[in-house]
Specification:
Blueprint (H helix, E strand, L loop, with lengths): L1 H15 L2 E8 L5 E3 L2 E10 L1 H10 L3 E2 L5 H11 L11 E9 L4 E4 L23 E6 L5 E6 L4 E8 L1 E8 L9 H5 L6 H11 L8 H11 L8 E3 L5 E3 L2 E5 L6 H10 L3 E2 L5 H12 L7 E8 L4 E4 L13 H4 L10 E6 L5 E6 L5 E7 L1 E3 L25
Parallel strand pairs: 5-9, 15-19
Antiparallel strand pairs: 1-10, 2-3, 3-9, 4-9, 5-6, 5-7, 7-8, 11-20, 12-13, 13-19, 14-19, 15-16, 15-17, 17-18
Length: about 400
Amino acid sequence: MYYLFGFLVCLAIKEVVPQTVKTTYVCPTGFRSIGRKCYYFGKQQVIWTDSHFYCGLLNSTLVIFRNYREQNMLKGFVTQDNHTTLDISERWIDGIYDWKTQHWKWGANAKPIRDNPFTKRNTGENFRWNCLALSGAFNNRWLARRCTEKKGFICETDTNIIVEFKLYNRQKKKFNITRCTSQKSLNDYEKRRCRRLLGRTENEPSPLILKNHTARSTPKKRNFDGWICSPHMINLGSRCYTFSTRETTWTDAHFECRRNGTKLAIIRNKAQDHNLRMFLNNFIERHDRWIGGIYDWKTTKWRWAMNGQPLTYRGFSSKVMHHRTPQDLAWNSIFMDPKIDNMWNAAKQTEKKRFICQVQAKAVKEFVPRRKRPADATIKIVKNHPNAI
């Protein structure tokens, strides 16, 4: 009888104290939510490289299908009757053909595409300079198309997850001066509130202001002692570099760096450029070397191909760039030219040059073993003397 009564009391308490959890998935402006991904359907007709940059400006990438589920969800969304605003034309996705390894890869991470159910064509066909597109007219199958063709594109990014908790539905009681003047006992928090309400002078600075002022005046200490790189890499400042010994096109250099877990060098400031130039100027062998900059002819700006961001620092020589027009710079990438002390120059991406790969160095802290305190006195034990007591 008592056990049954206790069980009913527990149920009653659970019903009196409700708890709700609400989870929503929010997409950026202009993106459409499909599952737990956000997609942007670009209507502009551009080549594959420009679509890559456009998605980068939207803090996204061209679509990468990680499994059949993602592909089927996007396919179902496009083919629904209530989305007639989406045309059935072909759209670029992130796949590109690496002719050197003869494999299709995702352009953002250079990982091989394991599932490639695009429309089959002649097995002996040359896919060089081909990229992947989704065809709305062919039930959204994958098609291999020349990367220089102009098409729409699809960008993707992750959703922002918003989780809202609402517990007990209790309203917070307002704290006023009547609580301080009452005869009820106060806890430490309430005592501090009362002191602020009753005893603090107007000229007394707020504790928050004091805290912020102290935080600004105290310099932040670096909690590491230096940088370290892998044995096969060279450390210059906070970055690690490898310098190739063979010549390739700019596209092949991009994939070669990505296969090794690095990227074509991105030079962000004058100090980094100076360190790299001084190192290269001491080389016995002097070769042109690709870095990660590429010319976006549509916006007439130089960008870093890895993230699509415009250059904030330019190491070009004024001798080689002042006479070049935007038409001359189409399909150009940046290389370091030893003829002008390894300052920047530009050339067609199809030219073969050596290249520089880069990765962030790892911060390390030197381990110093604790030194033993020297002894204040030394006790030496000798054999007992025969005359000792």
